[in-house]
Design a protein that fits this description.
The protein has a single domain, classed as Ferritin. Helices cover 77% and strands 0% of the residues. The protein contains six helices and no strands. It has helices at 2-6, 13-43, 46-72, 92-119, 123-153, 159-174. It is elongated, with a radius of gyration of 18 Å. Bound molecules: MU-OXO-diiron.
Length: 179
């Protein structure tokens, strides 16, 4: 039966697993960002809340994009189990630093998929993943910019209020929109 199912897809078992692992990573990212949005809302950071809500949506979009790709290739896409979502942070700065680490880790994982695709001559997956390679440049840049705001503005006095305000503008600036 398994061999028969395999005939439906040109994805190798190994690549199907790697892509399902990435589906899980993106699903986890979405849940993490949603929890970050909740933390920000609780602390009264309105713009950061909206930012991380939007980020959670984007990650779900990434998850679905890979999910659909696996389905389209005739593979078996797995709906991921998301557990151990962190809801507590010591500060907005720590939360934003965690978001940046998350993005760097996702970039590394995307690179590993491209590497695996090239090693197995899976040009379709290589080509498909290039969108994610570009996306990660932007995602990392946005997260890095947000972390920089803490040093540029400083957290004393109205600093955190100003940082929150600026977080609301970062995405627009990187996506070519108005401030
Ligand atoms: Fe889908 Fe931000 O990585």
């Amino acid at each position: 039966m398994k061999d028969l199912v395999r005939l439906k897809t040109s994805l190798t078992e190994e690549m199907e697993q790697i892509l399902n692992d990435q589906i899980k990573i993106e699903g986890n990212s979405s849940a993490k960002y949603l929890a970050m949005a909740s933390w920000c809302a609780e602390k009264g950071f309105e713009n950061a809340t909206a930012f991380f809500m939007a980020q959670a949506d984007e990650e779900r979009g990434h998850m679905l994009k890979i999910f659909n790709y696996v389905v389209e290739r005739g593979g078996k896409a797995m709906s991921p189990e998301v557990t151990n979502v962190r809801h507590e942070y010591d500060s907005l700065r720590e939360l934003c630093e965690t978001a940046l680490e998350q993005e760097i880790s996702v970039s590394n994982s995307i690179n590993r998929i491209v590497e695996a695709a090239r090693k197995t001559n899976d040009y379709a997956t290589d080509n498909f993943m290039q969108w994610f390679v570009s996306e990660q440049i932007e995602e990392e840049a946005i997260a890095r910019r947000i972390v920089e705001l803490f040093d540029i503005i400083g957290e004393d006095g109205v600093g955190l209020f100003t940082i929150d305000k600026q977080i609301g503008k970062v995405r627009g600036a990187y996506e070519g929109g108005a401030e």
